[in-house]
Amino acid sequence: MPAGGAPSGLLPTGAGCGYGAGIMSDARIDNGAPSGAAGQSAGTNPPRPPAGEEGRFFGFREIDPTEKAPLVQGVFGSVASKYDVMNDLMSMGVHRLWKDMFVDHVNPRAGEALLDVAGGTGDIAFRLKKKAPDAAVTVCDLTEAMVRVGRDRAIDQGQVQREAGGIDWTVGNAETLPFTSRSMDAYTIAFGLRNVTHIDKALAEARRVLKPGGRFFCLEFSHVVIPVLRDLYDAYSFNLLPKLGQMVAGDRDSYQYLVESIRRFPEQQALCRRIEAAGFTQVKARNLSGGIACIHSGWRI
Ligand SMILES: C[S@@+](CC[C@H](N)C(=O)[O-])C[C@H]1O[C@@H](n2cnc3c(N)ncnc32)[C@H](O)[C@@H]1O
Does 41 fall in a domain? Predict the structure, then answer.
């Protein structure tokens, strides 16, 4: 769920995955604070988990990895009906600009098969379809309630199922995608990868379903690389976001999870390495709003 884009930090900043690039090198803000959810204050983020161990955490809470998908489903099942309005409110509309930039980056073309994983209520799918009306767009998401909201939005817009030129809506897990190998020209995942239990399994699945030469794109919250913006963003997200969640959606915990899960997600360069390890080449990262969000991309080889 897009959160907190400070207007002053809106413009994209380069963050090519040349390891050790100056803007990336002061990236960590870990201070070894113990896990603990509610009441976490700005500037006390716990360390990010070692690669491959993200499934052991639900936000700052340590869990058994088998618990993660049901907990995540619980969050999105609970917020589904308020998800779109909360996005606008929390990000002051900035998530729309990030998503526009993301889809510009994808540059979908007529006739392509496009898969939007963790597609939720369809923000990316609708944009893909607008840019390439003749493309075959499929949404796949873990949470049925999110998919239902997306499908209802499509119906409200007069869009129908894919056979008739609309979008296909599927419930499924990014780690075990219900699609045949080498069937997609592009794979997108926006604000979804941070929620999966095993990031590397999801990346392997992305590679499996892509055709050779297919393109991978991930839009996700990342690590803020501008110290003053980082402090402001931490203060905003820890102090204000859960309160907003309580006031508007009647659900403080889900928005506390949002804030914490962002701090658990791999930083830009670390994610680049894992995308490469999954079998992608030409892997690049492009920061948005000073690293509040980041677009990662790569080619399937
Ligand atoms: C923050 S929402 C993003 C929705 C949409 N992509 C957007 O940008 O507005 C995250 C979505 O990821 C989905 N999700 C979480 N874990 C998933 C998984 N393992 N496989 C597929 N979808 C998942 C959730 O159900 C939720 O709809």
Answer: yes
